[in-house]
């Protein structure tokens, strides 16, 4: 291949060039086939190469690809906003479209700050969050992210918004078990609010299932109810970052629905366009929009490509595809089957510490010792090794972990397209087993050597 000037994640590595994708598989130029058990980055929720989506894209492109949001609206954007309002629990009715998950969480942050400003309260500007979390890469979103590895270089530019421990039951900092713990980690929020002052805090943001930073860490039963109550009692909005979980990944449209909680604002991304177009959204409830509608009359944010008609048409087609093919309903049973099978691998591979997650957002955490839960040394780059072996075997899994703080261990996420069939799940499991067996051989050889 000719010299490349494309900046890639690791410039000293060679990346396969993908030729095409079909369903859960991707094919590179050399003809190698990959089972996309990560949906890229938990994005390709309906699989690759779905013609209906491409046709919707083409149809819109033939009419108009771009109109500027302060001059025009479009049928596609209007229909998408209406569909989202129909699908949302409660009165989460108002959509603001952006182009990435980071923009969505930052817009949610700005909506929350504006909500208080419109009521004459100018001091409520902080958006608290948890450690072992990820809300995006732009500086505002990174300020909310408790991902030490991704924060490290930019700390002087960031706000100290991560303030509490995550509901990481496998490594509970209190050495307790839910529900007997009384959700001690959620109650930390109450203490943080007291310390910082509710008059300084606009909102609290959390991922319903912790993704990139932790590896599919789902909370215990009443965790989010406890969090929501603390927010309500202290006059703080609750933002759910559903960028990874939204639109069916865990078996319900919002993952928050699994714990009977309705947020004040939701951020969506990834699965919203399922990889067919860059589209994301911040969706606000009637309560949040009321003072904004009565005051400034719009959310004070926006991007050139916000509500881009072509992206909106694609997202609408993705949601219609999910609906027409009754895909979300099947996620729970597929997820339970896959999780049970992964769980069984613990007996075979002593380096599997924890198998966890919800729906088709599953995680495996690797440990040096199953009994003591001792993580591998960070410098052993275990996650990267597993991901690389998997790729060699034709299996894509997503690397997770907070990076440099050693609080949590190495983990991968397994999150195939929601459309995956039973037979493809069997194939996925076979490839996972092959990968872990090869990894086992590798670490045994390293120990002996
Ligand atoms: N929030 C969550 C929960 C995410 O998983 C991600 C992406 N991994 C983001 C925000 C940022 O999204 P994007 O990469 O599209 O900016």
Automatic annotation (TrEMBL):
Keywords: Pyridoxal phosphate
Superkingdom of origin: Bacteria
Entry annotated with the keyword Lipid metabolism: no
Entries under Pfam families matching the protein: Aminotran_3 (PF00202)
GO MF annotation, one: pyridoxal phosphate binding
Cofactor(s) in the UniProt record: pyridoxal 5'-phosphate
Family, as annotated: Belongs to the class-III pyridoxal-phosphate-dependent aminotransferase family.
Name used for this protein in its record: Aspartate aminotransferase family protein
Species of the source: Neobacillus bataviensis LMG 21833
């Amino acid at each position: 291949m000719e010299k490349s000037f494309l900046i890639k994640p690791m410039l000293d590595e060679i990346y396969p060039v993908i030729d095409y994708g079909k369903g859960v598989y991707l094919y590179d130029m050399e003809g190698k086939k990959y089972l996309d058990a990560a949906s890229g980055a938990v994005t390709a929720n309906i699989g690759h190469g779905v013609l209906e989506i491409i046709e919707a894209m083409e149809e819109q492109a033939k009419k108009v690809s771009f109109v500027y949001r302060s001059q025009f609206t479009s049928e596609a954007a209007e229909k998408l906003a209406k569909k989202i309002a129909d699908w949302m629990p409660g009165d989460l009715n108002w959509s603001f479209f952006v182009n990435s998950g980071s923009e969505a969480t930052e817009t949610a942050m700005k909506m929350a700050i504006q909500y208080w400003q419109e009521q004459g309260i100018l001091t409520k500007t902080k958006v608290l969050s948890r450690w072992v979390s990820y809300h995006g890469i732009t500086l505002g979103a990174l300020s909310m992210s408790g991902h030490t590895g991704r924060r490290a270089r930019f700390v002087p530019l960031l706000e100290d918004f991560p303030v509490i421990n995550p509901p990481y039951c496998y490594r509970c900092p209190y050495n307790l078990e839910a529900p007997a713990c009384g959700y001690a980690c959620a109650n930390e929020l109450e203490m943080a609010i007291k310390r910082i002052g509710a008059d300084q805090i606009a909102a609290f943001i959390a991922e319903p299932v912790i993704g990139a930073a932790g590896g599919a860490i789902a909370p215990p039963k009443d965790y989010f109810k406890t969090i929501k109550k603390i927010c309500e009692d202290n006059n703080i909005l609750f933002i759910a970052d559903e960028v990874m979980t939204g639109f069916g990944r865990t078996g319900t449209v919002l993952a928050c629905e699994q714990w009977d909680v309705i947020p004040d604002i939701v951020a969506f991304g990834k699965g919203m366009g399922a990889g067919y177009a860059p589209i994301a959204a911040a969706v606000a409830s009637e309560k949040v929009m009321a003072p904004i509608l009565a005051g400034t009359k719009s959310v004070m944010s926006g991007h050139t490509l916000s509500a881009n008609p072509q992206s909106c048409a694609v997202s609408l087609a993705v949601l219609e595809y999910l609906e027409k093919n009754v895909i979300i309903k099947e996620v729970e049973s597929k997820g339970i089957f896959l999780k049970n099978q992964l769980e069984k691998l613990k007996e075979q591979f002593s380096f599997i510490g924890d198998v966890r997650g919800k729906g088709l957002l599953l995680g495996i955490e690797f440990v040096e010792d199953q009994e003591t839960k001792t993580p591998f040394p960070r410098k052993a780059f275990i996650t990267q090794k597993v991901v690389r072996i998997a790729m060699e075997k034709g299996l894509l899994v997503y690397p997770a972990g907070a990076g440099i703080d050693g609080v949590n261990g190495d983990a991968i996420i397994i999150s195939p397209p929601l459309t995956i069939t039973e037979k493809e799940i069997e194939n996925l499991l076979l490839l996972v087993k092959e990968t872990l067996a090869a990894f086992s051989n590798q670490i045994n050889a390293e120990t002996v050597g």
